[in-house]
Amino acid sequence: MHTHVTSVGLLVCTDPALNFSYPDHIPRACLDALPPQPGIYIFRDEAGIPVYIGKSVNIRHRVLSHLRTAGEAQMLARTRHIDHERTGGEIGALLREAQLIKQHQPVFNVKLRRTREMCSIRIDGSSPQVVFARELDFGRTEGLFGLFQTPKAAQETLRELAQSAGLCAVLTGLEKGTPGRPCFARQIKRCHGACTGEESPAAHAARMLAALAPLKVAPWPYPGPIAIVEKSDGLRQRALVDNWCYLGTSTSLGKGRAAVKAKAPARFDVDVYRILAKPLLRGELTVESLQAACSPGAESK
Predict the structure, then answer these.
(1) Domain locations in the chain as residue ranges
(2) Where is the GIY-YIG domain (predicted)?
(3) I need a surface site. Which of 16, 119, 165, 252 has the fewest CB within 10 A?
(4) What is the Cα–Cα distance from 27 to 29, expressed in whole angstroms?
(5) Residue 221 to residue 244: CA distance in whole angstroms
(6) Residue 273 DSSP class
(7) Residue-wise pLDDT tens digits, 24-37
(8) Which residues, in sequence order, are CB contacts of 77 under 8 Å at separation 6+?
(9) Which residues pair with 119 in a beta bridge?
(10) Which of 172, 153, 154 is nearest to 162 (CA)?
(11) Which residues of 35-51 are buried (b: 16+ CB within 10 A; e: fewer)?
């Protein structure tokens, strides 16, 4: 609860729970049970089906903000109960939210609701190729650049990079051509001449890789599964992850190893990648190996 003193000396409470009226059709008990800790929450309809799933570092505050939002009246009208799950921290909440949304497909979750067929740009020899996650394990493949929902989006990105970096439209696969003949970009002085031999293939390849570098997809940086450890108000939780795929949670390293061993081989998940790539590669997270053999002292209770 937060308070402040107004200009006329009145002590005002700013606890969000006291600033609005609860919807009559949502049981007060489930709202009173909401904790001010990290986790996920589920708005359910009369049949118990999730209509919206969210996450927050403060479940209580976030849910109460939903109840005060006029633009969410339709969702609230269908809600008959609100469940919650605590997590060890924000990362665990983000991973669990993405998992549950894909599992239940709630009608009011749009951003993460659909399982997408992802594609990427791969340098195969001298020319970029569009490759698909259904055919290639993105988490264990080097030389991938960008994550796209459609081949068209990948091609458009490649076209924009070619124009801005002065790349050859033929060597980037954007235009058909014959050796020695200038591509269209060369004819209008926007290509450095790789198509006509005025720029070496090696120099062009180096410039193409430099242009694509900001889009590089990082392969899974560990030899096997890991646990990401988070703690919040007495709850210590491990998020189990392998190959940019979320496998669930565990409260101990031993149980985490057993759970991962029982799972099917992990496949790249674009939502998990987008949640974890930056903090994990920057070393911002507490990580434990889930490999069967680990160095002395690596195991945590």
Answers:
(1) 3-104, 119-215, 226-289
(2) 36-110
(3) 252
(4) 5
(5) 9
(6) H
(7) 899 999 999 999 99
(8) none
(9) 132, 148
(10) 172
(11) eebbbbbbbbbeeeebb
Lowest mean pLDDT among 14-18, 118-122, 206-210, 265-269: 14-18
CA distances from residue 35 to 15, 46, 64, 131, 136 in whole angstroms, order as listed:
13, 23, 11, 44, 42
H helix or E strand, kind and range, residue 5: strand 3-5
Topology of domain 3-104 in CATH is GIY-YIG endonuclease (3.40.1440)
DSSP one-letter string for 206-254 = HHHHHHHGGGBPPPP-SSS-EEEEEEETTEEEEEEEETTEEEEEESSHH
Q: Which residues contact 216 (CB under 8 A, 6 or more apart)?
A: 144, 145
The number of angstroms, rounded, from the C-alpha of 41 to the middle of its chain's C-alpha atoms is 18
